[in-house]
Amino acid sequence: MRYLPLHASEREAMLARIGVLDIEALFADIPADKRIDGLLDMPLAKSEMAVERAMTTMASRSLAAGSGPFFLGAGAYRRHIPASVDHLIQRSEFLTSYTPYQPEIAQGTLQVLFEFQTQVAALTGMEVANASMYDGSTACGEAMLMAHRLTRRNKAVISGALHPQYADVAATLAHMAAEKLVRLPPDVTASEDLAAAIDNETSCVIVQSPDFFGNPRDLTPTAAAAHARGALLIAVFTDPVALGAVRSPGEMGADIAVGEGQGLGNALNFGGPYVGLFATRAKNVRQMPGRLAGETVDAAGRRSFVLTLSTREQHIRREKATSNICTNSGLCALAFSIHLTLLGAAGLERLAKVNHANAVQLADRLSAIPTVEIVNAHFFNEFTLRTPRPAAELVEALARRGVIGGLPVSRLLPGAGLDDCIIVASTETNTDADRAAYAQALSDCLSMKA
Amino acid sequence: MNVQGRPTRPETAASSARGTFTGNRGLDIEEALIFETGRIDATGVDIDEPAPFRSKLGPHARTTAIDLPGLSEPEAVRHYVRLSRNNYSIDAGIYPLGSCTMKHNPRLNEKMARLPGFADVHPLQPVSTAQGALEAVEALANALLTMTGMAAVAMSPKAGAHGELCGMMAIKAAIEARGEGATRRVVLVPDSAHGTNPATAALIGYSVRSVPAGEDGNVDVEAVRAALAPDVAAIMLTNPNTCGLFERQIVGIAEAIHAAGAYFYCDGANFNAIVGKTRPGDLGVDAMHINLHKTFSTPHGGGGPGAGPVALSSRLAPYAPVPYVVREDGALRLVEHAEGGASFGRMCAFHGQTGTFVRALAFILSHGADGLRQASEDAVLSANYVRASLNDVMSAPFGERPCMHEALFDDRWLKDTGLTTLDFAKAMIDEGYHPMTIYFPLIVHGAMLIEPTESESKASLDLFIMTLRDLAIAMRAGERERFQSAPVHPPRRRLDETRAARQPVLRWTKPRPA
Amino acid sequence: MSEIRYTKDHEYLRIEGAEGVVGISEYAQQQLGDVVFAETPPLGKALKRGDPAAVVESVKAASDVLAPASGEVVAVNAEVESAPGIINEDALGRGWLFRIKLADAKELDGLMDEAAYADYLKTLG
């Protein structure tokens, strides 16, 4: 077996040194009636070629997003990732290293994390960021718990335009931690009155911008309303490239900014692994979950980096930890960081501009089709479309014509009266031909009802 | 109060002079931060300026500049290649961290994960277009069920600690469904447990009651019975435990727990010792997370990502979170809403770490039933070989007793040398090794936990053993200075962690002009 | 005339008339290593003997400092929040954590005096 280096004769020699006759003697502590002799319901070992054949066949039964016109976002975005990114993250020293607990031999990882933290803080307009969370949705849940700790209150108010699955994660966490949650009804047109929902028991207001339906929001009044009542504003985003075009959470007065970093450096991967971004004001750092890389010097006075403020974390504080997180999303954070380093601010702004321009072009084309309405007054690279036909079957009909047209809102918000809405995304990967194909397919579907 | 600290500042200052103009030494290169070498207007990605268009951003356009530099592609590649060279990795040498299972990360896994039918599939594509990706999830789930002998598996948790949270949430949901949520508020946790266990319990409102380990390193069923009361919701046990020992009384403990109306959570971090040798379901476990980045070889990536699917007993299966994959009429679909069932809710957006699943699946298919059992046997064999080869020069807390996949030593053998476990670890770095886990588990003084895994050759183990013997003998012979100043060879010497914590600098800021 | 008493948990109580000053012992600060963070209790808080009152953290460990005796917190040492290192430099002096108005003089009998604490430390090895 190609991954097992020991030879039979070596095993014998090792058993002899240990002083037992056979390997079963080392498993003697397992109760005899609970021992099994291998796994009977599983095939035997396969060669690399055989595994490759089986898995390639399996993969061929999915439609790759890049194989046709693709306009789906809703929290995960198809990006063009420069070739260097995937090559660099596969270097042995990045791919196969561990958490940098021995900093003398992990300065590569630690310096990357320090750069990543700086980038995330700059992008979000906040003062300090951590070394990543699992993804945007769990980062959002952790931000809620952090707000409870900071305000010593336990009621969160959640916008009706937060990604529904993010809201579900927060709701699960709140229920389990016996905390209160007020969830505003779905808000497609960014017209909800968040200030009215905040009272003196509120610990935080959680708002997404650009929101689930594609609307960029001015969070400044919400921040003011929250602060007036002693509550915190948690700003959420699901595409980091949006921050290259719209106002940052920090600018708008957010206390904590969380989001999904997948849109830079990371493939779609059918939902994971992704990377959670988490940033806050410097005064809140002790209550921030997750790992932190900090600057220091070594015994020879040279600048170095090390994991720090660890006493917030589970391995020291145990039941009093700020979170139970241990493994985070290091390699995905590295991919994010490399992509953003390659872009720089100038590149990011231009990339955001192209995303927006493509979305505007698509919106113009689609809204020219009779009975198609675009709901958003403003958008970045996603908008909500309404047609007379139920969205779920319309999206299936488009798929049969080779176009992935977006997310039927009813898939994530069933029974909310939004069965005619599709959330459509457009990134830099879409071409004129893609847009033409979508418009044609949509027009055909609406006129033929087939 | 807990007085467990240790020195976090180098005792002596060393010369920083490296004798070269650059400060570099051969292949060991000093690399600056991107903020110091990049330019605000530089970019390494060519993006065409779009044709003129009417912006729909309205008043929401960003007005402040983003203060982040860019680098051209050659500069960026050079930056990251140089940084990577300052890292130890399992590809470069043995990584004997206890309970981390740092085994070889096969590149076949990486190749399979990058197939477009897995990597370039959006989680919310119409399910009919994602069958291949769903098959990978289902195939891994079935393999995990076979290995654990349990009834169901929740695939969405994103890491081991997240899996612990999932399992404990399922337990809490089951208890609430029985109407006992107000009375069962306590979770039993051994004092040898990994910190994530009590942290997880506390996160969902449980208080932790400690169960002491016995003199033999195992949890005694009588100690569990003494701690059991009608207020107990669950016990969280690691098996094999963090001392590297199989919990001999686990079946009795499970029976006592169940008889008291409580649930059994098993931390599966050490599953590598028992795959194909016993099944957690047969031992009475109700929920167990599996660290795919440990037992199933998915790479650690410098701190993640991982994945922590949770196997559930039939008692807990009804409460599993959404989403999960079901097979209906020959096709796979996702159940994404609780649909009036007993599911306790959702752990994360989308479906879980599919990229990680594909890697684990490639590993499992490659090993097969026979290979997986051989891997467990070799892991246990190697750990015992290391233990038997060192126990005359180092001290073990539980005597000559065989271990499972990891060998535990304490620091009694260093008494009177004036040297510590930390000094030993830092000297290993000079020898070209990543140290073993140190100061964990907390119940053993100056703990040293060594897990070689099954992917080390005997030659590699022999050199490792001989090196540790040499170091141990030198430490006992009184060579203090060498050990207290170690390491001297890697790119950095001991760091001032005190300063990092007292004056935290967590991001780069532009230096003010003098 | 002040007198110093110790707990098995390495807290000290320096008795000054009807009040007591609380901190961690010389042994504790040595074992903990460099202190990087200290948090004192809120003024006015009513502590019972054994309640977690303050937190002292080094890089590698976090410690709850338990109240050695019952009483109301009447003063806290602001200096330890900005310069936690004084706990290492002068644990018994400038590194004090908080001051309480002693509620029950009888509790003092349960604490070790300097000599008894020194003997106790010898048993720890």
Short description:
The complex is a heterotrimer of chains A (450), B (514) and C (125). Helices cover 37% and strands 13% of the residues of chain A. Chain A contains 14 helices and 13 strands.
> Nearest-angstrom radius of gyration of chain B?
26 Å
CATH architectural name of the largest domain in chain B: 3-Layer(aba) Sandwich
CATH homologous superfamily identity of chain C: RNA polymerase II/Efflux pump adaptor protein, barrel-sandwich hybrid domain
Number of self-contained structural domains of chain B: 2
Helix content of chain B: 25-40%
**H and E string of chain B:** HHHHHEHEHEHEHEEHEEEHEHEEHHH
Would you identify the CATH H-level superfamily of the largest domain in chain B?
Answer: Type I PLP-dependent aspartate aminotransferase-like (Major domain)
Mean pLDDT of chain C: 92
Q: What composes the largest sheet of chain C?
A: 7 strands, antiparallel
Q: What would you call the structural class of chain B?
A: alpha/beta
* Shape label of chain B: globular
Q: Radius of gyration of chain C, rounded?
A: 13 Å
Number of strands of chain B: 12
CATH topology of the largest domain in chain B: Aspartate Aminotransferase, domain 2
What is the number of strand segments of chain C? 10
Number of domains of chain C: 1
- So, CATH architecture of chain C? Beta Barrel
pLDDT below 50 for ≥5 consecutive residues: which ranges of chain B? none
> What is the overall number of helices of chain B?
15
Helix content of chain C: 10-25%
